[in-house]
Amino acid sequence: MKKLTFTSVFSQLLLLLFVIAWIVPTFGLFISSLRDKDVLAISGWWTSFTTTEVNEIYRTKGKEDQIKEGDYYFIKSNLFDENQGKEIYRFGITSKNIDEYEVGETALFKDETEITVFENGDYFWKSKEEFKKKKGKRIFVSAKSPPSFTLDNYKEVLLKEGLGQAFLNTFAVALPATLIPLIICSYFAYALTWMKFYGRDLLLATIIASLVVPLQMCLIPVLTIYNDFGALFGVSAKSYPGIWMAHTGFGLASTTFLLWNFLKTLPSEMIEAARVDGATHYDTFIKIVVPLSIPSFASIFILQFLWVWNDLLVGLVFLDKHPSEIILTAKLKELLGSRGENWEILTTGAFVSMTVPLFIFFSLQRYFIRGLVAGSVKG
């Protein structure tokens, strides 16, 4: 058995801490996205598996629902819109004393009408005179709410809030903006690694130097160039091709550098043997380098895709905000400003935006790990 040391135990505990610190908020976000909006606003997600005590306000039916029985007029209904499983244990008729009465007791309004509320939300409102007001009375209830989950938040977010179209728009941006630099950098990195030409080292140094240039410094100059080209050819710079090229330009240096680090670890004898057999650079790249570089390609694909998918700044600069172009992060930012009090909208929207990166990562994680450690040990 492997001998345990303080360093190994500490590293394993630290790794476990990082895993928990990542999983717990993600799980909490998922649970929050499935909760009822009224319960979500007053309690944390960790209470969703236990019965929660809630204080809520409901309004009775108005005069249109009254019926006459004998000498009295009645309005009978249920405070809850649907069977939610809630159990009322106290209620009140004023905001100063919201739990004045127990269920089954009769409360007296100022207009001398009487109301009785029962545990399941049923009530009857009784009056000697005919009800005149169109709106009903406010009823304050203290109830026990059992654990409940719903998909209504997802229906509202995807169908009513426009997040579904933003989801598709982000796909239309992310896939080409990931594949284009991946294809270009694969040829570029091969040329820098196995082809000898004048200025190769200077070109490599330029790529490495460009990694330290902040993206924010390039946005306005690049957009200005795009606008000039757009005016020349009569097309808008703020379009999908424009943002594809922007992401390609911003991501090409890092993807090329990562792939170059991997390709230089491949055995040079194998490349030389292919040349002796008469293989061209294209044949060598397609038949030898590409099959051996799948883990590296996968890791670069994941990193580039996650960056593009989660991008906000480039999307705001190179795309308009109308529904046919707005991306997911920009839509979430818009909802944060207009629906900031609606936590069910924000949590559901945030989890929707996380689903694709999580799927991509877990689908390609074995290649991702191999791609990251590739080149750390030669042979």
Note down, in words, how this protein is organized.
This protein is an alpha+beta fold and 379 residues long. It folds into two domains: 52-146, no CATH class; 154-373, Orthogonal Bundle (MetI-like fold). The protein is 56% helix and 12% strand. The protein has 13 helices and nine strands. Strands 2-3-8-7-6 form a five-stranded antiparallel beta sheet, with no helix packed on it. It has a four-stranded antiparallel beta sheet with strand order 1-9-4-5, with no helix packed on it. Strand 7 (114-117) and strand 8 (122-127) form a beta hairpin. The longest helix has 32 residues, at 163-194. It is elongated. It starts with 5 loop residues before the first helix and ends in a 6-residue tail after the last helix.
Summarize, please.
With 379 residues, this protein is an alpha+beta fold.
Summarize the SSE layout with pairings.
Layout: H1 6-33, H2 37-40, E1 52-59, E2 67-69, E3 72-78, E4 87-92, E5 101-102, E6 106-108, E7 114-117, E8 122-127, E9 138-145, H3 152-160, H4 163-194, H5 200-210, H6 215-233, H7 240-263, H8 268-276, H9 281-292, H10 294-309, H11 313-318, H12 328-338, H13 343-373
Antiparallel strand pairs: 1-9, 2-3, 3-8, 4-5, 4-9, 6-7, 7-8
Task: Return the domain count.
Answer: 2
**Class inferred from helices and paired strands:** alpha+beta
Q: What is the strand content?
A: 5-15%
Shape: elongated
Query: How would you write the strand order of the largest sheet?
Result: 2-3-8-7-6
Total of helices: 13
**What is the CATH first-level class name of the largest domain?**
Mainly Alpha
**Considering DSSP H and I runs of 4 or more, what fraction of the residues is helical?**
55-70%
Overall average residue pLDDT: 83
Our measurement of the CA-to-CA distance between the termini, rounded to an integer number of angstroms, reads: 27 Å
CATH topology of the largest domain: MetI-like fold
Radius of gyration: 31 Å
Low-confidence parts lasting 5 or more residues at pLDDT below 50? 375-379
Largest sheet data: 5 strands, antiparallel
- Tally of DSSP β-strands: 9
The CATH architecture of the largest domain comes to Orthogonal Bundle
